[in-house]
Specification:
- InterPro entries: SAM-dependent_MTases_sf, TrmK.
- It comes from Paenibacillus soyae.
- Keywords: Methyltransferase, Transferase.
- GO terms for molecular function: tRNA (adenine(22)-N1)-methyltransferase activity.
- The chain is an alpha/beta fold.
- The chain has two domains: 156 residues, Vaccinia Virus protein VP39 (Rossmann fold, 3-Layer(aba) Sandwich); 70 residues, Helix Hairpins.
- It has ten helices and seven strands.
- Helix 1 crosses helix 2, helix 4 packs parallel to helix 5 and helix 9 packs antiparallel against helix 10.
- It is globular, with a radius of gyration of 20 Å.
- The two termini are 34 Å apart.
- It binds S-adenosylmethionine.
Length: 251
């Protein structure tokens, strides 16, 4: 049985496609996708030798070597253009994830890929921004709590009307806030437009914790009398207030 986090990722993967799971570790996700019959074939990519060997063993133990190819390499470099429909990347930071996606894109590895399922551990904003800039429609996202940790899963699709759909998604007109557009868009990119619309308790909890962290930093800056500290402090205060305003809209 998959963890709740991996199950949520699996739920987003479209049925009947070829999937590549990058940074697959023990290849739990592709093994599940094949065993459940959801995916037709899979590639597990791993940079490091330990997890690569573990994934190989997992594929063999599950009798899936015909359907699951395990490849060692950096990010999307393990893929040939056009050989996969869905790319999943989970359990790493958003900045590394964006780096992997962008390097892969430049090498043509995303050509023919129609769907991305991404679960950044932190730095979700970097991933959302990259998707937006690259014209991937953020079709859905979800937030969940497991073992005391909060995870976000992003589901992006390549489709002709992606730009128009994203424009609507990020215009924030559903929020009763009279901020300027770019401030609103910035916060939507950070907090997740679908997640804000859904307004779950888990989202609220996540951002209460974030505010606590920001407060801590702001207080530490109060102790500093460096000339730039005052304006930084104000920026933090303004940021906290903005997040709180959005949280108020959730209820
Ligand atoms: N995706 C699995 C999950 O979500 O449960 C495993 C997550 S594990 C914390 C991250 C994995 O990514 C590690 O096994 C690591 O070796 C691999 N990794 C890190 N950087 C990578 C890269 N540039 N290319 C491929 N794999 C990478």
């Amino acid at each position: 049985k998959l963890s709740k986090r991996l199950q949520r990722i699996a739920d987003y993967v479209s049925t009947g496609g070829r999937v590549a799971d990058i940074g697959s570790d023990h290849a739990l996700l592709p093994v599940y996708l094949l065993q459940s019959g959801k995916s037709r074939s899979a590639i597990a990519g791993e940079l490091n030798a330990g997890p690569y060997m573990a994934a190989k063993k997992q594929a063999a133990d599950a009798n899936l070597t015909a359907l699951l190819e395990v490849r060692q390499g950096d990010g999307l470099a393990v893929l040939k253009p056009g050989e996969t429909d869905t790319v999943t990347i989970a359990g790493m930071g958003g900045l590394l994830m964006r780096e992997i996606l962008e390097t892969g894109r430049q090498a043509g590895k995303l050509e023919g890929v129609t769907e991305l399922v991404l679960q950044p551990n932190v730095g979700e904003d970097a991933v959302r921004l990259w998707l937006l800039e690259q014209g991937w429609y953020l079709a859905n996202e979800s937030i969940l709590e497991e073992d005391g940790k909060i995870y976000e899963v992003l589901h992006a699709k390549r489709q002709p009307d992606a730009e128009a759909l994203n424009a609507k998604l990020y215009d924030g007109s559903f929020l009763p806030l009279d901020w300027d557009r770019s401030a609103l868009k910035g916060l939507l990119i950070r907090m997740g437009p679908h997640l804000i619309r859904e307004g779950s308790e888990t989202l609220e909890e996540k951002w209460r914790l974030e505010i606590e962290k920001l407060e801590k930093i702001r207080k530490q800056m109060s102790a500093s009398d460096l000339p730039e500290a005052a304006s930084k402090r104000e920026q933090f205060q303004a940021d906290i207030e903005r997040i709180e305003e959005v949280l108020k809209c959730l209820r």
